[in-house]
Design brief:
The chain has 267 residues and is of the alpha/beta class. Helix content is 31%, strand content 30%. Helix 1 runs parallel beside helix 4. The chain starts with a helix and ends with a strand.
Length: 267
């Protein structure tokens, strides 16, 4: 079996997994969990700078939470996902600004299908915590260089490639600091490399999902290869007021960014 065949097989497996998990994720995630509300959502909006009347492409939209947010800001949104179950949930949740959102069943690794959405049509595009669910990001990057208008921007968020991946461990240490016992939170990074693993996104989900982990050079190299440039980057942290749901929750690791949000631009 060739490398491309392997990627296609993994992509089909990922699609099946998301169809299985989608209903559960929709019920738990709703219109956004703490990770989205406090980290990725605000940072994505700051970098995307959506303006009323703009046409925005929502890549791998899931249950459509961010698409609805952009529609509420006055944008026209074309949203797609490769999970029919997620799209069903997205349509059920979309009760306002219905005329500003259209949903499509499209696989982000299918370059031809992406280009049929309309070359030069989009002022901006967004992919919220989705690139690590894709077996191959090169078709999307190639398509993005055509779908965006000149000067158009593409904002994506991912688990931080340096700190939040399969090769790290979360630590909590009890220390005496000046006569007071405190808990210090840190991580240990055992490796930094491209990897494909199965893991849990939200505790309790029906089945483990595939993660296609990529280094910084993997992510940005795919963009630079098609002429997209990087002109914005954020690494948001949970604030002091964040309430951890579990002992090893990212809300406890307030000096380590669990996500990276980047803005690419077509020039």
């Amino acid at each position: 079996m060739s490398g491309q065949d392997d990627l296609e097989q993994l992509n089909r497996e990922a699609q099946s997994i998301w169809d299985t998990n989608a209903g559960w994720w929709d019920e738990v995630y709703g219109e956004g969990n703490a990770f989205q509300r406090e980290l990725t959502g605000p940072a994505t909006e700051r970098l995307l700078q959506p303006q009323p009347g703009e046409t925005i492409l929502d890549v791998a939209c899931g249950n459509g939470a961010f698409a609805r947010r952009m529609a509420a800001l006055g944008c026209c949104v074309v949203a797609f996902d490769f999970s029919e179950v997620f799209l069903q949930r997205a349509r059920l949740r979309t009760t306002e600004h219905v005329d500003r959102i259209e949903y499509h069943l499209i696989d982000a690794t299918d370059e031809a299908a992406l280009l049929r959405l309309g070359e030069g049509k989009f002022d901006a595009a967004v992919a919220t915590m989705a690139l690590m669910d894709m077996s191959d990001i090169n078709p999307l990057m190639r398509a993005m260089s055509h779908l965006l208008k000149p000067g158009g921007r593409f904002v994506f968020s991912v688990l931080h490639p340096c700190f939040n991946h399969d090769g790290m461990s979360m630590l909590a240490e009890h220390e005496d600091v000046g006569g007071e016992f405190v808990t210090q939170y840190s991580i240990k990074v055992n490796q930094y490399r491209t990897n494909t693993v199965k893991g849990i996104g939200i505790p309790g989900q029906p089945v483990a999902q595939l993660y296609f982990e990529r280094t910084l050079s993997d992510l940005f190299g795919a963009a630079f290869a098609v002429g997209l440039v990087l002109d914005g980057l954020e690494e948001p942290l949970f604030g002091a007021e964040a309430q951890p749901a579990r002992p090893f929750s990212w809300q406890n690791y307030k000096s380590i960014p669990p996500a990276l949000i980047a803005r690419l631009r077509r020039v």
